[in-house]
Amino acid sequence: MKKTSGGLKIGTRYVSWGDVVFDVCNYSFMVFLCIVMIYPMLNTLAISLNDANDAMKGGIYLWPREFTLYNYQYVLKENTLLNALLISVLRTVLGTGISVFCTAMVAYVISRKEFVFRKFVTIAFILTMYFNGGLIPTYLLMRDLHLIGTFWVYIIPGIIGVFNLIVIRSFIEGLPNSLIESARIDGAGEFKIFFKIVLPLSLPVLATVSLFVAVYQWNSWFDVFLYNSSNPNLSTLQYELMKILQNTNATMSGKTAADAFANAQADANTVTPASIRATMTIIASVPIILVYPFLQKYFIKGLTLGGVKGE
């Protein structure tokens, strides 16, 4: 690297001072942004791995001061968690697959200009984003459909997501219409066009929507509380973690801060609401974090398949 009056010469390439300043500012901002985004997760992980007694003193940032796994042992000792984990995984996989597939099919239909009722159907779907029947009518509907107390109450009500429908429809409308017309000339039907052309080219948006739906399904617990709270076999991980947190808060609510701290000092193996919240956050977040790298390759693959040379 050689310094000149007009900038820097790196090998055979000349870089102006403006580019140097821009790169320094850009990289500095990106590093700062990464720190801001990563720090809360690392701090939560540190608190979850730190002794609850010591954590009450504060001052824990990126690394646990007194390492322990008791917080995780306390949360995971519940016998119902394994079954709840299986229900959550099953709900997330089935709910995401069925919802994305059905939403993509409807999006393809309303994206076709030759569909006479496309505007009416689109408006009817959009209206549901702004108006709904409310909690009690929805509960009565689920009861009349005999979905309460069943696993399918997690899947059927959310099969079509209107926001995701609009996103997928907009993406399909941007695909080259010449591909679909060529397939029709060759004798392909609508189902073959959808499965052989539209779906492969729509992988980027389908992967994005899949992530949205998967996060929603994985984090949902209120519908469990409404429809299946009396059936422990259909309880989800999020609902069980919420009950553990409520029980911990109820246990600690009758104690003053001084009593809680004195009892914590006397008992080496104890938990606090703060330590339980941190532990639950890590347990609930890690599976979604692990899923994203697998979806990322579909972004790249979908962009490659969707590349059409313009004329």
TrEMBL record:
It comes from Anoxybacteroides tepidamans. PANTHER family: ABC TRANSPORTER PERMEASE PROTEIN MG189-RELATED-RELATED, POLYGALACTURONAN_RHAMNOGALACTURONAN TRANSPORT SYSTEM PERMEASE PROTEIN YTCP. Residues 85-292 form the ABC transmembrane type-1 domain. It is a multi-pass membrane protein. Belongs to the binding-protein-dependent transport system permease family. Pfam families: BPD_transp_1 (PF00528). One of its GO terms (biological process) is transmembrane transport. The chain crosses the membrane at residues 20-42, 84-108, 120-139, 151-172, 193-218, 276-295. Keywords: Cell membrane, Membrane, Transmembrane, Transmembrane helix, Transport. One of its GO terms (cellular component) is plasma membrane. This is Putative aldouronate transport system permease protein. The keyword Mitochondrion does not apply. It is found in: Cell membrane. PROSITE patterns: ABC_TM1 (PS50928). InterPro entries: MetI-like (IPR000515), MetI-like_sf (IPR035906).
